[in-house]
Structures are given as C-alpha cells and as structure tokens.
Amino acid sequence: MHLSRRDMLGLLAAGIATTATAGAAQAGRKITNFNGGGISTPPTRTEVYGEAGAPPMLSSDSVALMEEAIARYDMVVRAGGWPRLPRMRRTLVAGSRRKVVRTLRRRLALEGYLPPDTPLNSRYDKDVARAVMQFQRNHGLRVTGHVDAATLHELNIPAEQRLDTLLANLPRVEWAQQGIHPRFVFVNLPATQLEAVNNGLVYSRHNVIVGMPERPSPAVRSKIHELNFNPYWTAPESIARRDIVPEAWKSGNPKKFLQQQRIRIHDGFNGPEVDPDTLPWPNIDTKRYVFRQDPGDGNAMATVKINFPNRYAVYMHDTPTKQLFTSAQRYFSSGCVRVEKVHILTEWILRGTPGWDRARIEQVVRSKERLDVKVEDRPAVIWAYLTGWVTPDGNVHFRKDIYRLDGTGFVSGQPKPVRLAGQPG
After folding, report:
1. CA 323, 326, 327, 332 torsion: positive or negative?
2. Cα(26)–Cα(261) distance, rounded to whole angstroms?
3. Mapping DSSP to helix (H, G, I), strand (E, B) and coil, where does residue 73 land?
4. What is the rounded distance in angstroms from the CA atom of residue 188 to the CA atom of residue 210?
5. Residue 31: φ, ψ to 5°
6. Average pLDDT, integer, range 208-226
7. What is the pLDDT of residues 319-341, one digit of tens each?
C-alpha cells in the first residue's frame, strides 16, 4: 500500500503511522477491531440533541446510581450468576425458534433486560429483539437485534466480572463527579465518545479518537479557556522522536520531506528557526529542537485546537483524517482527543463569548486566518476512564478495558503504556 508524503504525515501527526489499522483506514479499506471482526461503520454516531437533551454518561447522581447497580449485580452473583450461551455457528436472528432462545431469555431477564417473569420459551420475538438491541447499545455494539459473535461474547462475560468492573469504576465516577459544573464537556476514553452537557442534559454527543494503548490518554479535569482557529501544530516530543525524525531520515532528504509537510524546526519553544541540513540526522535532540507544522490543509490540528490547562500537555482538536471516525474502536492518537463534527462543539463552547456564533466560526475556518479566542463562559472538561457506568435512565453500560486498568486501582492521571502482542519488550 502506498501513501503520499502528505497522507503519511497526517498519520504521523496522529501518532498512528506504524499501525495497520491506520493504514487500512487511509486506504479506505475495512478496519479490523481488537476482537478480529471486520467493521465499516461505527455503532455510535455524533448526534445533536439540542435543548431537549439526552441522559448523560456522567451526572450528579452517578455515584448513587453506581452503588445501586453494584448492589443489584452483587445479588445476581450471590444467586449463582447468569447462564452461558453455547457457541453458535451462525447469527441468532430475530424471528427464529431455537432451543437456545430459552437460555437467552433467562440470561437477559437476570440482568434486567426482560421482566423477571418472562416466559422461557424458544420464540425470538419482538420483546427479545428489543432487549438485545438495548443490550447492544449499552455495550457499544452495533444495534441489530440479532445475536452475532460480538454480542454473544459480551453476553457470556460472567456476572462476577461485571460486578468487578463496576467496583473498579466507582472511585473513578466519584472523582469525575467532583468536576461537574452546569456546563461541562465529558470524554469517556474507553467509550471513545464526548458529551457537551448543559444543566444535566446532553446537548451534543460526538464520536472521538483517543490515545492508542501504547500512548494512552490521561484522566484529567480542567476548564476550557481558549480556542486556536487554523492553528500551528507543535509536535509532541514523543512524536518528533518516534515518528517524524525516523520518517524524514528514511526519505533520504529530510529537508525536502519537512518542506513538503510544511514543518519547521526551531531551537527551543518559540526559538529561532533552524536549517534542517545543519542538524545531526538521525540523532537529533528532540528534547531541544521543536518541530512545528504551519497552518493549512493537512495540518494535524486541521481547523481548531481546544485548550485547557493540564500537566499532560493534551488538548482536543479537529483532524484531517476524518475517515478514522468510521472505526468502531477509535484508539489511534498519541494521547490527545480528536472530535468529530468539532464545530458543533466549538459553537457550544463559545456561547457567552461576545461576537461568536456558527456563522462567525464558519467564516474564520474558510478564511484560514490564524486566530486565538479566549472563552468567556468557560465550561469544565473531564476526561475519565470509565469501563462501567450507569446513566440516569437506569441503563448500565460497559466497555472494553482497553488500557488494562481495571483491578489496578487507577482513578486519574496518566496511565502507563500497554505493550501489545508482537511489540518489542
């Protein structure tokens, strides 16, 4: 597969140039998720609810809701848990009559997806289909109403494991809940989703891209204070060291490579520009020299960067590689969060900042003018690592422990990188 230099740097900027997943997405092919299943469209989508709102992932009642769910799952565990469905050669589809549906009905009833007195017959009727669809929503799966391989896998996770997940997430929810304000942006890293929340209701929900397991995003609380429209991109030291310098050196002409990508090298942050030919390739001191990409097409930040004070040098931003939002599991970045349909979010953030509305944002984006805007009514921002949570409508949600933090006591801060199979030690 061949990528243009511009495409390669777009991937480098995202910190994903060496992953097969990113390459497949760039080439427009199907991406394979962590379970080995082919996917082409995400099970979740970016939606605007407006002032009518929707139940948020995080609310002022989240701790109480978690405690109630823990008590309920503990009762199920003490009663012996739920049954395991047998392996199936084909998808179990709605409308069918099969003996295994009896086990499915009992399994769904024990977790509350069907009434406790549901008849344990072999009919896969509309009630069972609706229950399966809700189960799929609550587990971040494609909503079909049929029991495919991914749904069967989640159904067969033991009740004891689900209880352990809720227990591991209770202190994380307690920590996150402390950051709630009337207006806040919530990013759930395992769910790869962001919510803009007004007075306890979701205004908009966005698909996002978060840190890959070997470069995980932190759990952090802060307040959004500034937007940079059409920004420069200053490469994090890790990306300069791991990605840009090796790729530039491999090209055979580092100076030409950097010029093609509109990257300039500076001696220190905001220091003088340096001629790449004067540097000791490939042994450049990336802690000293700063790699900065000019604004414009292909810039890693694309049209906007959303800033908030934090010790981890992370932020939220637009992206030129929007095709990656079509993946079901969006762990592709080097720690920052990329937001789908970002200007729905920027318009919401700038409410209360005089002179800013959607038309003004669109005008600035079209102009490609470099512009920094101080946010007047600063919303809180919370990035949290929740693999289990409960929404105000009573639904209990679970996601994969992508950073392998459950059971470690992790609550907030910077997770350690996860070494994936096949990576060097």
Report:
1. positive
2. 17
3. helix
4. 9
5. -100, 145
6. 97
7. 988 888 988 889 999 899 999 99
Asked whether the domain spanning 82-157 has the same topology as the one spanning 39-61+162-231+299-398, the reply is no
Superfamily classification of domain 39-61+162-231+299-398:
L,D-transpeptidase catalytic domain-like (2.40.440.10)
User: Tokens for 373?
Assistant: 């805007």
pTM: 0.84
User: What pLDDT is recorded for position 422?
Assistant: 52
Quote the percentage of the chain above a pLDDT of 90. Answer: 79
Q: Taking the domain 82-157, which CATH number applies?
A: 1.10.101.10
Number of H-type helices and E-type strands within the chain: 12, 20
What one-character-per-residue DSSP string does 257-318 give? Answer: HHHHTTEEEEESTT--EE-GGGS-TT---TTTEEEEEPSSTT-TTTTEEEE---TT---EE-
Could you tell me if 246 and 282 are in contact, meaning their C-beta atoms sit under 8 angstroms apart? yes
Instruction: Compute how many other C-beta atoms are within 10 angstroms of the C-beta atom of residue 237.
Output: 16
Please indicate whether residue 422 or residue 341 has the higher confidence score (pLDDT).
Answer: 341
Q: Are residues 298 and 261 in contact, defined by beta-carbon separation less than 8 angstroms?
A: yes
Q: 86 CB contacts (<8 Å, ≥6 apart)?
A: 100, 103
What is the predicted pLDDT for the residue at 421? 60
Are 327 and 33 a contacting pair, CB within 8 Å? yes
For 344, counting Cβ atoms within 10 Å of its Cβ (0-12 exposed, 13-18 middle, 19+ buried), the class is buried
Q: Taking the domains of the chain in order of start, what are their residue ranges?
A: 39-61+162-231+299-398, 82-157
pLDDT confidence tier of residue 67, bands split at 50, 70 and 90 = very high
Q: Give the C-alpha separation, 320 to 178, whole Å.
A: 34
